């Protein structure tokens, strides 16, 4: 998990994640609420509304409005999620909960920092389109990056190739569209190729380099 991944503006007030090399975004889900703990905000938690983006390697939450700390987005590598599960309460909205390891120094399975707990609440509409695509891509990513035990080994042993762009684009083109689910499917990429990042994410056993807020504070 990384605070404030790179974003690009495609229209006034509309921010999208900047894609990594070989990354393909498959969907966007608006009207979701994120609750996340152990972040560098005034209360140490973040509860806010925004949009959720899903690609072949990660899930990215982009808030409608930045927190006073400068926090506006979070990056959840699919291969480093754990205990993620879909909850469908009788009373209340569908939600996806789980944990994700920190990308900060001393984070990761071998570090001293505990994983972050998160819950994504789908406040508007169903999940018949979103969840099957999330489940398939997350399962592929976890298989590619190995088990939690493998993640505790060296970078060379732990990291394998992520699900391909071709797989993700094929999944989007064949996706079942639930009329009760307002998810937007990306048949073509929402970000211009000129805005694609040049370097791949440095995911490893402890998830690479630290990320920073715009204000210069260390992300958790």
What does it look like?
It is a single chain. This protein is 15% helix and 31% strand. It is globular, with a radius of gyration of 16 Å. The strands form 2 sheets. Strands 1, 4, 5, 6, 7, 8, 9, 10 and 11 form a 9-stranded antiparallel sheet that branches. Strands 2-3 form a two-stranded antiparallel sheet. The protein has a single domain, classed as PH-domain like (Roll). The model is unreliable at 147-160 and 204-220 (pLDDT under 50). The chain contains 4 helices and 11 strands, in the order E-E-E-E-E-E-E-E-E-E-H-H-H-H-E. It has 220 residues and is of the alpha+beta class. Residues 147-157 have a biased composition (Low complexity).
CATH homology superfamily: Pleckstrin-homology domain (PH domain)/Phosphotyrosine-binding domain (PTB)
Total count of helical runs of at least 4 residues: 4
Q: Beta-sheet strand percentage?
A: 25-35%
- CATH architecture tag: Roll
Give a quick account of the main beta sheet: strands, pairing sense, barrel closure. 9 strands, antiparallel
User: Any idea of the CATH class?
Assistant: Mainly Beta
Cα radius of gyration in angstroms: 16 Å
CATH fold field value:
PH-domain like
InterPro entries: WBP2-like
Region (Disordered): 146-199
Biased composition (Low complexity): 147-157
Topology:
Elements: E1 2-3, E2 7-11, E3 14-17, E4 25-37, E5 45-55, E6 58-63, E7 73-77, E8 81-87, E9 95-100, E10 116-122, H1 130-145, H2 148-151, H3 155-158, H4 165-173, E11 184-185
Antiparallel strand pairs: 1-7, 2-3, 4-5, 4-10, 4-11, 5-6, 6-7, 8-9, 9-10
Region (Disordered): 146-199
Biased composition (Low complexity): 147-157
């Amino acid at each position: 998990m990384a605070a404030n991944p790179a974003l690009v503006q495609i229209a006034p007030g509309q921010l999208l994640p900047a894609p990594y090399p070989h990354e393909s975004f498959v969907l966007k889900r608006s009207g979701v609420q994120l609750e996340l703990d152990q972040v560098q905000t005034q209360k140490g938690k973040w509860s806010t509304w925004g949009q959720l983006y899903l690609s072949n390697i990660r899930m990215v939450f982009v808030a409608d409005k930045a927190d006073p700390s400068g926090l506006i987005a979070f990056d959840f590598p699919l291969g480093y999620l754990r205990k993620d599960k879909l909850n469908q309460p009788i009373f209340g909205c569908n939600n996806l909960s789980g944990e994700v390891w920190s990308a900060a120094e001393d984070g990761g399975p071998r570090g001293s920092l505990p994983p972050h707990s998160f819950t994504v609440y789908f406040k508007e509409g169903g999940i018949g389109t979103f969840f099957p695509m999330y489940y398939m891509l997350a399962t592929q990513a976890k298989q590619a990056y190995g088990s939690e035990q493998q993640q505790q080994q060296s970078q060379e042993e732990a990291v394998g190739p992520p699900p391909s762009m071709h797989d993700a684009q094929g999944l989007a083109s064949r996706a079942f569209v639930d009329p009760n689910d307002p998810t937007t499917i990306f048949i073509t990429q929402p970000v211009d190729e000129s805005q694609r990042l040049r370097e791949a994410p440095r995911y490893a056993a402890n998830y690479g380099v630290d990320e920073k807020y715009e204000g210069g504070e260390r992300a958790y």
